[in-house]
Structure formats: structure tokens, C-alpha cells
Amino acid sequence: MDAVENAVSTRTGLAGHPALLCIGVLTLLALVIHAPLLIDFTVGMLGDGYPLNVISVDFANYWMAGQMTMAGMQQDLFSFPVYYGHLEATFGANYPIHNWGYPPHFLLLLWPLGLLSYKPALVVFLTVTFALFVLAAFVFRRVYAPQSSVTLLVLAIFGYSLMMVFTTQNGFLTGALLLFGLAWMKSRPVAAGLAFALLTIKPQLGLLIPVLLLLDRNWRAIGWSAAFTVGLVALSAACYGTQSWTAYLTETLAYQRSVMTDWSGIFLRMMPTMFASMRTLGYTPDTAYVVQWPFSILGAAVVLWAWRWQTDPLQRIFTLACGTFVISPYAFNYDMGALAVIAALLVGSQPLSRFALIMVSVIAALAPCVMNLGRSNLPISPVLLIIGLAALTLHAQQIRREPLS
């Protein structure tokens, strides 16, 4: 009964609630740290010309993909030397190194950006994907936690969005796809299958989805996901040629592996994985992998252990989202949007043991802190993730062993 007696319920209000304290403080810290970057980025967007902090963001890859696809040069995306030459020709010599790392069917979503100039395209991309993300968060809330705290959810979304504005990555889009798929996987398997299929633009984010669907015997969602994935691959091959897939599988993926092992810099501090944490601390890639793989195995064991004890759907989904970042060596802070939403809804709707409540609350606001932890030479994000995962599992185990009388 200890886990129940020590539980903190949101039904009595949020005043003094540990979740509000954790998420609120971390979100405020994110605002203080990110505000100067946001101001500089906004000034650059509103001013004349194209300053470096506007054109060097990750969105440049998406806009260039749209431009090159419209010009029929999409094949050049998949070869780094050729693609980087296009970047320098467009943005100037000595442009910061960018590489293309996505499969060809992502171009089916990006080609309209080629119809716009750079700044309008950036605004449209962020606006549309942010709207999708917010909509998905509230659809997900309606399904799994309709009585949850909206305040905690908004705080988590706000902190994550601060980071996303000036990184202009695809996190809003992939977060929305994951949340839509998880919200609809039982009630609307066709729509869920389409969402999961589109999420294969970043396949590492869907690492545990097939496992959960198999455990739940959700054959319809599995079937529709597979069918839509095959359809997207076939459509992209028809539109952009089978050679685009050949180049992606042989050149692009090989270069992505070399980025992980040969490159260094700020991108490592943006990764909440054990591999990146070890490299941030100065260890070689080989040593980082030696640590990552046992950590991944441990994470997979914790996920399976959790699903053995968890009967609550929202807890099982949190385990999926959190476990993905523990297991995968390749993920970024901007990929953590759906996890932030799920964690905020969990602590805002369920009575949890105090330790589980605090750890899951920290995870709800972790995304905008990942890079600054790395910069401070404290890359502890993967440790926080696996502790939070284990804490929630221990809570579920104790509840199952000590049922309410």
C-alpha cells in the first residue's frame, strides 16, 4: 500500500504539486537560456538579407530538398559531396556542413517548400507542423487522459517549442505522427497505420511500435502500417526513381554512420543517448559503442519488464516513448516532443509514487535541457531516462502486488 499512500493526485489541484515544480522550474530555465537565441533568430527573420543564424539552421536541408525536387535534381541529395556543393552554391562558400539523411519518401512531404522562398517557407513549415503537433497532443489527451492537467501539458509543450523554433527541425512533425498513431491505433487503425508509415521518415523513432502492437495483438494497425509503408516506398520510387532508394541505402546511410563515428561538435550535445554522452565526455566512438550496446540491452529488458507489470495504457505508451531513447544510439532532443507530451499527461492525470512522479516530471521537461547539460559536461540525459523508466515500472509492479483493498 505504500505506493498508493505516497501517491500524489492532481485532483486536489496543482498548488505545491511536485510535477508543477519540476516542469515549471525546468521550463523557466529553458526560457532564460533560449530567450537570447530566439531574439537573435527573430531579428534575423524580420530583417533584410539572410544572416547565418537563419540560413544555417536544420530547415535549410528541407528547403533545399524542396527546391531540388522541384528542379528534378533530387538524386543529388543522397551524395554528400554533390549535395554540399549545391548548398555552397545557394548559401555561399564556406557554408556550415549539412548533410541529407532522410529516405526518399520524405520528399513527398517536402516538395511544396520548393514553391516558396526561404524565409516564407520556414514560417510555413514551423506554423503548419506546430499546429499539427498541438492538435495531436490534445487528440492524444482526449483518448488517454481527458482529466489531466492542461497546465502541465502546456508547460511541457512550451518548453519544447522554445527549442524547436530556432532549430527548425522536424520534431513537431514526427511528434505529431507518433501521437496520432498512438491515439488511433485501437479505434482508427487505418489512420494510425498511415501515421506510423509516415513516421518511417525517421525509423528509429518507431523502434518499439511493432513490439507493442504485437503484444497487444493489434493486427489491423500492423497490417495498415505495413501496407502504407510499402505504398510510400513504391510511390516515392515511382516519383523519384528507384535509384534514389539505391543511393539512400548505399551512400546516405553509410555517410550517416560516418557522422556518428567521425564527426564531433554541438550535435553530440543535442543527443540524449548513451553513445553521444560518452563521446561528449571525450571517449572514442568504439568505447562509446561498447557502453551503448549493454545500455541498450538493459533498456530493452526494462521495457519488457515494464510491459509485464503495466496494465494502464498511458503507462505502457510512456514506456514505449521513453524506452526508444534509451535503446537507440541515434536520437536528438528535437525528437522528444511526443515523449514530453506523454510524460506531462501521465503526471497530470495519475497518482504515482513520489519518486516516479518526480522522475517522469523531469522527463516531461528534459528536451530543452539536453544540449545545455552536454555543454556543461554533464550529459546525464540517458541516465535520467532509464531511471524514470525503471521508477514507473517499480510503481506499477508494487501496485500489482499490493492491490487496493
Automatic annotation (TrEMBL):
Keywords: Cell membrane, Membrane, Transferase, Transmembrane, Transmembrane helix
The keyword Ribosomal protein is annotated on this UniProt entry: no
Statement: the UniProt record of this protein carries the keyword ATP-binding: no
Membrane topology summary: Multi-pass membrane protein
Stretches of the chain forming a coiled coil according to its record: none
Subcellular location: Cell membrane
InterPro entries in the record: GT87 (IPR018584)
Main location group: membrane
Signal peptide location: none
Spans traversing the lipid bilayer: 19-39, 121-140, 152-185, 191-215, 222-243, 288-307, 327-348, 355-373, 379-396
Family: Belongs to the glycosyltransferase 87 family.
Name of protein: DUF2029 domain-containing protein
Organism expressing this protein natively: Steroidobacter gossypii
